[in-house]
Amino acid sequence: MPSITTPTQLEVIPLGPLFTAEVKGVDWTxxxxxxxKDEIQEAIDKYGVLVFRDTKLDDDHHAAFAALFGELDxxxxxxxxxxxxxxxxxxxxxxGNLDPDGNLVTEAxxxxxxxxxxxxxxxxxxxxxxxxxxxxxxxxxxxSMWHNRKLAAPDFYADIDPSDYNFSKHKxxxxxxxxxxxxxxxxxxxxxxxxxxxxxxxxxxNRLLAFASQKKYVQRIQWENDGDMIMWDNTAVMHRSTxxxxxxxxxxxxxxxxxxxxxxxxxxxxxDPEHPFRQGLNPLATKLRAN
Length: 291
Fold this sequence. Notes:
four-stranded mixed beta sheet; three-stranded antiparallel beta sheet; single chain; alpha+beta; disordered N terminus
């Protein structure tokens, strides 16, 4: 791993042998100075995932912090198709389990069971057998959020055919903009690999995911406090929520996310940057509105 070379004002504590770290020493009550931003950038480039405990950030300061690392995505396309938002700042993605009229959590929940799971896609690629690296070099995956959702909830999305919607095309092996490290860009969003049948594609995707999901490449991070923030680089790690426990059915979970665009030369993958499209629009809601 590259070392952090700038003079350090922060304490960066590794949480695992390969990646993930906790960062201490950020003064969240003030604007983040450029030298602190640079330290955080070096840390995220090295560790892939950073944990900041008990930040007490409100939505606007959360968004301002994220904007230091790239232009922010927002919910504007969802508003245009009539989605009602709970959060007033359109740069905040509502990823909790509250509906737009839900109540916020105001006291600590003693059963804080939920975790976030991350996978080091860089080291997983490094460790692939050479013949596998040769096999997947140059292959392009067609990715679909609706394929991913349908795998998770086939009955709910029974009437949705992912092939009816645009695919987001990215190479299975991509270069990290900041470090140049190669990483494996292969997730459950992969509907098929261009030039291969769906059956052949899924067999290869399953084989790659089985390799990359080995315990040595995976790190779990526990939420501890209201106001904890986890920052991760989607061009270095894979992410999923896991072990939701009582949050799935009993306790309110108020979680908010910002997303900074990849600003590197491979950000658009094999897609046309002049004709962007939004994967996250719910086709069920869009069809109902159109009707």
